[in-house]
Amino acid sequence: MKYQGKKAVVTGGTHGMGLAVVRALLDGGAEVLLTGRDVSGVDLPAHLLSSDASRLADIDELGAVAEAKLGELDLVFVNVGYATLTPYAEATPEIYDRTFDVNAKGAYFTAQRLAGLVRPGGSFVFTTSVAAEAGIAGMGPYSAAKAAVRSFARTYAAELAPRGIRVNVVSPGYTDTPTMGVTGVPSEVLAAFKETGDEITPLKRHATPEEVAAAVLFLAFDATFTTGADLPVDGGLGQRLTLPV
Ligand SMILES: NC(=O)c1ccc[n+]([C@@H]2O[C@H](COP(=O)([O-])OP(=O)(O)OC[C@H]3O[C@@H](n4cnc5c(N)ncnc54)[C@H](OP(=O)(O)O)[C@@H]3O)[C@@H](O)[C@H]2O)c1
């Protein structure tokens, strides 16, 4: 089995693309510790931890549990994140802070806490977004927080290279997860968001979580000479393509 003997932590592994990565790892024989704010509904042969990525005490506990259950790690998939659809005029300091706390601060300190457990040859993959390099109306704090993640993934790549640990980024476009990466919007707004995504994406559809998972696992285990890189899985959305008329 492809991932036999591998040990992985997946944050935000209870649904969406995190869950797709967890399933692929388990199918391949890996041992996995996954988190979400509420893991009580998860029925998988994995270690489970309810953990809020914005709380430093929870991140510390995640480190302790990872060490106790898994010991050394081959992969840390730092995946937790969410966006709101908030035009600038409606943005509050609370929305700004929470968006940065979950997406950026949580990712940074999760990597800091777990770095010591990753063995040489292991790797980190962070989830950012096509939004990190775009101007998408309503996604100001989210896009900036993901741009921060893209930046500090480069720094982690530099800092961990001497230990033979690679650090890469996957940046999805519109992906068909339960939330489409967006929280706090009515279902009709989410449906319109998804429809817009299908229209503006050059491949004229959204990704499946499994398509993103394939890129994550490629970066994690196959791309053995790739570090500090960003692999878009966006159907061409962020690639400045001009389609035939
Ligand atoms: N879907 C898209 O179109 C899209 C596009 C670009 C980027 N992304 C990014 O891709 C990543 C995964 O998105 P997804 O669409 O797969 O989302 P999802 O289906 O909403 O899954 C998010 C995961 O993170 C967990 N989570 C959310 N907030 C958390 C918190 N504060 N602490 C701990 N766990 C938390 C969720 O579990 P609980 O609900 O149990 O906490 C869940 O396991 C995110 O970073 C997102 O920003 C998504």
UniProtKB/TrEMBL annotation:
Transmembrane segments: none annotated. CDD domains: SDR_c. SMART domains: PKS_KR (SM00822). One of its GO terms (molecular function) is oxidoreductase activity. Keywords: Oxidoreductase. The keyword Nucleotide-binding does not apply. InterPro entries: KR_dom, NAD(P)-bd_dom_sf, Sc_DH/Rdtase_CS, SDR_DHRS6-like, SDR_fam. Residues 6-173 form the Ketoreductase domain. Belongs to the short-chain dehydrogenases/reductases (SDR) family. PANTHER family: DIHYDROANTICAPSIN 7-DEHYDROGENASE (PTHR43477:SF1). This is SDR family oxidoreductase.
